[in-house]
Design goal:
It is found in: Cell membrane. It is a multi-pass membrane protein. One of its GO terms (cellular component) is plasma membrane. This protein is about 75% helix and about 0% strand. It is mainly alpha-helical and about 425 residues long. The protein is elongated, with a radius of gyration of 27 Å.
Length: about 425
């Protein structure tokens, strides 16, 4: 099972590496034609959504206005995510972080020929525990990735389901051509009408439907790619923190045993310096990893939270005032969005909990009777650990368990605003 998880991870990393090499929008001489096409289509969908909304606003009913708002937020979020996932510089840094070896699993090579001391190198049992933890975290990350991919797939299926249901009802003569709807509001000159959502022929409707489905399938592909980068990077940093905590908790256990024996502990200076050097490198790696995730999540957290808030707000409105088939669609979308938001909130909470655990372990570490340089190094780590950056959105909301509550409160506020506006 462990070997299978590692093989699966290597396969995903190879896929991400190929993505970085092929799909990029900058610099211009290296831009991929497919990326340029998708970027152009995404920008066109945003602009035409606003134009169509403005042209139809006075003649649109409530449901059409809500659908238009949903389409605009969807197109904006997809456009920002496309730019984000095709950032060559950022993706290269993230892949380098994911591919790097775990500092916590490295074994010190002691070549000191001095007398044997009471402080021993990393035990084989501790090393086995670390390797088992790394394998367990890899398996957990792959399972989480599968869950997210399925949730995103169900979300997009729910997004386009109404169009295929309407088309099926039309083919069996239950609905008319005027009842056919697209997943997204779309205006294409000479094919669709700017001021009307009704299609004059089935051929024109199918052309627009195929165009939108192709775009949505592409969106699904790069959305899953974006989540692969994100989940594996979070898993790598979280695993490093857990490995650091295992090492320090083992030191605390040895310290308690030495206190119970009340014997004088003699430390090998060379061995102690090597241990502290690795500990400092490990801690600095964790700090850099959290800092990188905090910077990376600024843009992603902005459009992810923004889109989630608007979708929840629109879903509540549609559940109260929408047609029955629209209600079914938004119930499915609402549940999936809550699951995804809760998942990422818990992912951020895991980082927060492990950092707090790391802070506690450093506070109660074995520092008595240690040299002065050792104590100063510990003070440096504890000081830096108290200033770890939070994964937050401009200090408005933080990626932790409270985030879901903040999103729901914001959605309810927007719902009241739209409700008063509609009245």
């Amino acid at each position: 099972m462990k070997g299978q998880a590692r093989e699966e991870t290597d396969k995903i990393l190879l896929e991400l590496e190929n993505w970085i090499k092929v799909y990029r929008i900058w610099p211009k001489e290296c831009a991929n034609p497919y990326c340029i096409l998708m970027l152009t289509v995404g920008l066109y969908l945003i602009v035409q959504s606003m134009v169509v909304q403005a042209a139809r606003w006075s003649i649109s009913d409530f449901d059409e206005k809500i659908v238009g708002m949903e389409n605009l937020t969807f197109c904006l979020s997809v456009f920002l995510e496309f730019i984000d996932v095709n950032s060559y510089k950022r993706n290269t840094k993230m892949l380098k972080l994911i591919r790097s070896d775990y500092i916590g699993c490295q074994i010190l090579n002691f070549k000191d020929g001095g007398p044997r001391t009471s402080v021993q190198p990393t035990s084989s049992q501790l090393q086995k525990s670390k390797m088992a933890l790394a394998d367990l975290m890899t398996t957990k990350a792959l399972n989480n990735l599968t869950t997210i991919e399925r949730s995103v797939l169900y979300f997009y299926l729910g997004f386009i389901s109404v169009s295929f249901i309407n088309l099926t009802l039309y083919l069996i003569n239950i609905q008319t051509l005027e009842d056919l709807r697209l997943p997204l509001i779309l205006y294409i000159p000479y094919i669709s009408n700017l001021t009307s959502k009704v299609f004059r022929s089935l051929t024109k409707y199918l052309i627009c439907l195929i165009f939108e489905v192709a775009y949505i399938v592409s969106t699904l592909y790069w959305t899953n790619t974006s989540y692969k980068f994100l989940l594996l990077a979070f898993n790598h940093v979280l695993t490093e923190i857990k490995l650091f905590n295992i090492e320090n908790e083992d030191d605390r256990g040895e310290w308690k045993m030495d206190q119970e024996l009340r014997g004088e502990v003699v430390y090998n200076q060379n061995q102690l310096r090597q241990e502290m050097r690795l500990k400092l490198i490990h801690h600095q790696t964790i700090v850099r990893g959290i800092t990188f995730l905090s910077e990376y999540m600024q843009i992603k957290w902005f459009y992810l939270n923004g889109y989630t808030t608007m979708q929840l707000c629109i879903a509540i409105i549609c559940l109260l005032k929408g047609e029955p088939i629209i209600r079914v669609k938004y119930v499915a979308i609402l549940l999936i969005i809550i699951v995804i938001t809760y998942f990422y909130s818990e992912l951020g909470q895991d980082i927060v909990d492990e950092c707090e655990r790391m802070r506690t372990n450093l506070l109660y570490c074995d520092w008595i009777d240690k040299p002065l340089w050792y104590k100063k190094s510990m003070v440096l780590m504890m000081t830096q650990n108290n200033r770890l950056p939070e994964i937050s959105l401009f200090n408005i909301c933080t990626m932790n368990r409270n985030n879901l509550g903040v999103v729901v409160q914001a959605s309810y506020s927007y719902f009241n605003l739209l409700k008063n506006f509609s009245n």
